[in-house]
Amino acid sequence: MNSRVSDLLAGLAPSATLAVDAKAKALKAAGEPVIGYGAGEPDFPTPEHIVEAAVKACHEPSNYKYTPTAGLADLRDAIVEKSKRDSGLSIGAHQVLVTNGGKHAVATTFMTTLNPGDEVLIPAPYWTTYPEAVYLAGGVPVAVMTREEDGFRVSVDELEKARTSKTKLLVFVSPSNPTGAVVRPDDVAAIGRWAAEHDIWVMCDEIYEHLVYGDAQSVSLPVVAPEIGDRFIVVNGVAKTYAMTGWRIGWMIGAPDVMNAAINYQSQTTSNISNISQRAAVAALTGDLEAVAMMRSAFDRRRKTMTMMLNSIEGVNCAEPEGAFYCYPNVQGLLGRSLGGKVATSSSELAEILLETIKIAVVPGEAFGTPGYFRLSYALGDDDLKEGLERFAGFVSAG
Description:
Layout: H1 7-10, H2 16-29, E1 35-36, H3 48-58, H4 73-87, E2 96-99, H5 102-113, E3 119-124, H6 129-136, E4 140-145, H7 156-162, E5 167-173, H8 185-197, E6 201-205, H9 221-224, E7 232-237, E8 250-253, H10 256-267, H11 275-286, H12 290-311, E9 326-327, E10 338-339, E11 342-343, H13 347-357, E12 360-361, E13 363-364, E14 374-377, H14 382-398
Parallel strand pairs: 1-12, 3-4, 3-5, 5-6, 6-7
Antiparallel strand pairs: 2-8, 7-8, 9-14, 10-11, 13-14
């Protein structure tokens, strides 16, 4: 009997982060006092001037119609100016494709650049979508393990060990989801030169570029490593910087021939992205960064609080993240211990126990290619952040 589902999609894993978030929200809706650390989603409202731009756009009949697949001209121009302003990347509007969020930009990048069997180097821990999107495009995801003692920053040596004759593309993301690691500018340049030397494409995911703390510095690989030429694709979006996860606006930047192929692909799959959301994104990118600075300040405070509270729990070790809005603690010291009358042998089992017993939702490291860790988002209210970690600490100390 033939399967009712294609072999391709039967082999696709669901998004672990969205699954945890959905389960937490369902329990909360049922009256359970769940605190969710799962979703990478700012708890702040979208800034008012952006919302106002969307409201105005709803009353403009031109937005009721199909518009160019590649994106509204105003938004593509805004992305050009934003790229120059924020990272020093000089591009033309013809090199931009507006996508249905950053995740869509990632998937379209792989669909555009990969042939069956092409290998893609993905530093681990990695965002859950990267390997699955490579798989969908017929490529082969190759995890490149980084080390906790190195701050989970990938090095040229680690990449070189993983390189083969089939290596086509490197996924480079800094700041990192899930670890918050920020690669030093000199090391970013070295990685870019290494990729250029071996004719390897680089997808640069810059979605967290504005969320860096302390002395950490986020730089754009094609800017600090011009040797890469045009063998790069930058993916980005408004979701994290402007608290616009639900507006679904991302983009790709690349060489004209690559972008023409990506635009053709999008023309046969989604057509244009929502015009209302695009108008809102124009307001976001052309406005000031005052609201962004406010959110970053709050995230900075929360990352310090979360790191301190996690490190106060016996058996948990957490380095202070330098970017994004996640902590990635090592919880191997809790495995094999009796906690609440139960013994977890994996971080996945431990996450289930915490959700069932003390009603906190975290994403286990298995989802990111590194068992023995948790990802906790600190993009939630200060009171909830502290209460959930107090539950965690009390649960562990009670044994």
